[in-house]
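re: ur question from yesterday

yeah so i grabbed the chain u mentioned. its 447 aa long if i counted rite. heres the sequnce exactly as i have it in my notes:
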Amino acid sequence: MKELDPDEVSRVVLLGLLDGSAKSLDEAEQHAADRALNVFAVTSEPTDPCWQAAVTTAIVVAVRAFGRVAFITNSPDEVLARGPFRGRSLRDFAEEQGAAVALPGDAYTPSRINISIGDQPGAVFGRVLHARWDGWVASVHDEAPEASGGGNVVAAIGAASLAISEAFLFLLDRPGSIAGYRDLSINLWAGGGEAPELSFAPAGWWLVGLGHLGQAYAWTLSHLRYRSPELVEVFLQDTEATSFANHSTSVLTPRKTKVPKTRLVADYLDRSGFQSRIVERRMSSETVPRDVERGHVALIGVDNLLSRRLESQMGWHRVIDAGLGNKPATFTSISLHSFPGGRESNAVEAWKDDEFHPDSLPNSPGFEDLSKHFDECGVIVLAGKAVGVPFVGMTAAAMGVASAISEVLGGGTVDVVNFELTNGTLRRGAATSASDISLPALELSKN
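ran it thru and got these structure tokens back, copy pasting raw so excuse formatting
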């Protein structure tokens, strides 16, 4: 039998193999390729950093979740001012990502589902979903709302992620789903009291795990408009290299590449003017931050429980762990844990049992077909891989970064936050007051 390399199978394609919608790998790949989305980005203010953040987020996520993406904008030659691709034109960025670029009025292939970021796009074939940000609130609407009152760049990134999520779930068309026919929003301000302007952010960050979540975190941080970005220190910790499968979930990974994830992400953050520090060792008692590094906010994006149980012992001032659902029924679920808090990381009930690795094939037509044509080892390893779509990680990243900023701005923290993209349910634990220990922060320019 032929060998199957699990790292050559897109995690979006894996969804079709596991949920029963595809009877073979070829059919699952065709289903993914057939999903099409048009992104309309029409504005009279193309230099607005929030608009640029939302548009580029929508594109970088959409090209990984959909088989065909068209980008229709009246400002294709506008130069990006922030983010990993700053200095590039919107046209060059979009085409490099794999989107087809057109001007309003040009011929483009119609799509059943479209998203709009900015002004109204005019007459459009198919449904149009409208991304909006207002203060810390990110939202998507199935009918054009009134113009928003303005928001911050983290909310703009969240709004783009929500819009892509709704479009994807609309095409997935699961029984009972109303995705694409509703308003959906999330207030990213995690603290108590009235939400302030985004004026300061942590001066140091420590990203552990640079795949789906880690790259979404890096993407979000790169859009924060620090007045002195050269003073921002970002530690990047991972031991793995990229693979083809990473492209489907990780927004900084090209389609064909095999490089250490730390080097890839460091290159992009360096372009944003930050100081990157590489740690190519697993998180353990041997990689505990030194005293001068304990003021960093650790953003954890790992999927192994042994590392997660260590988080409270590492010595960071603030740890934010994002967990994503990894099965067809749960892949749209997000859970954030913050430490220190009401309990230690080794007391989180869901993290006490060791991870499960399947020793039998899933009961789905797609995996039954795989077992007939490929070696059993590769098929079983693939069955143990996490289903993933990039808009989930990007939404989680916006939530995690907002949570860290909340502490800097005096809003305190929340131990646990759960958000479900399928039904829009948001649950927050009890808020805690801001820590007596001052978290080092730097001033941001106004959005």
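noticed a couple things. The chain has a mean pLDDT of 92. also The first helix runs from residue 11 to 18.
anyway ttyl
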